[in-house]
Each structure stands twice: as structure tokens, then as C-alpha cells.
Amino acid sequence: MADKEEQDTMTSYKLFLIVISKRRTWVCLFLVVYAILLSSSWNSLNSIVNWYGENHQTSSGWPAVYASVLLGSVFGVLSMAAALFIAVPAIVVIWISVVVTIAFAGKSRKRVVIEGRKVTKEIACFVFRVLLKEGNFVALLCALLAYFVFFNSYSSSSSSSSSSSS
Length: 166
Prior knowledge:
By secondary structure, the chain is mainly alpha-helical.
């Protein structure tokens, strides 16, 4: 009976490993995390859009620039958070592999600790640089898209209000 339960556990574990090793699984997991972060920050995004709706008629195109920069930065931070959430397990596995390899190379414990700290620093700096680059790209893309959407809505609303007043 215990052997049957152990075999079922091993089968489900193997199935889990097969599913988690697929790239589609990680893409779906990234999208789910990004959707959760986006839905949790929906109020701040909604307040930015509402602020733009109240202020876009008061001046030229500057409210569109402000709103698009805010939206771009929010989406950039969200994408960085989602990517970090997904990357942490892989980073930990890489770190453990490197430290174990150093330990098996015959280094003393003190040397393993020193090398482990160096590896930790290098991995953290590399991950931070990649996340910053990816987040900036997403922020720029979202800011540009938001600006064109806001500026087109400003242009269409100001042209329709000037044509309706004449």
C-alpha cells in the first residue's frame, strides 16, 4: 500500500518536472504573474487615466506626456517585478550549482565562502542589469504607445469640440 502511494508520488513528480521544463509553461507563468500584478495595480493605472481625462483640455500636449511617462514607468516596474519573480528559481539553482562545483573542486571552506560571496555579487549585478534593461524597454514602449493614444484622443476631442462650437 505504501509502495503504491510512493509510486503515485513519483509519477506526479515526474509529470511536474516534464511540465515545468517546457518553455510554454514559463511563458504562461510569466503572463499569469504579470496579469496578477497588473490587476493589483489597476487603481493606480485608472487614476492616471482619469487625471489625464480631467487635464487634457487645459493645455497643449503636456498632460499626454506626463500621463504616458507615468503609465510607461508603471508597466516597466511591473514587468521587472514579474520577470524577477519568474527568474528567482533559476538564479538560485545556478548559484547552488556554482557553489557546489567550487566545493567539489577541493577548496577549503573559507575559500568556498569567499568564492560564494563573489559569485553571489556577480549574479545579483548581472540580474539587476538585465532586469533594468528589460524594464526600461517595456517602459519606453508603453510610454510611446500611451503618448500616441493620449495625443490622438486629445487631437480628436479638441477638433470635435472646436467644430461643434462653430
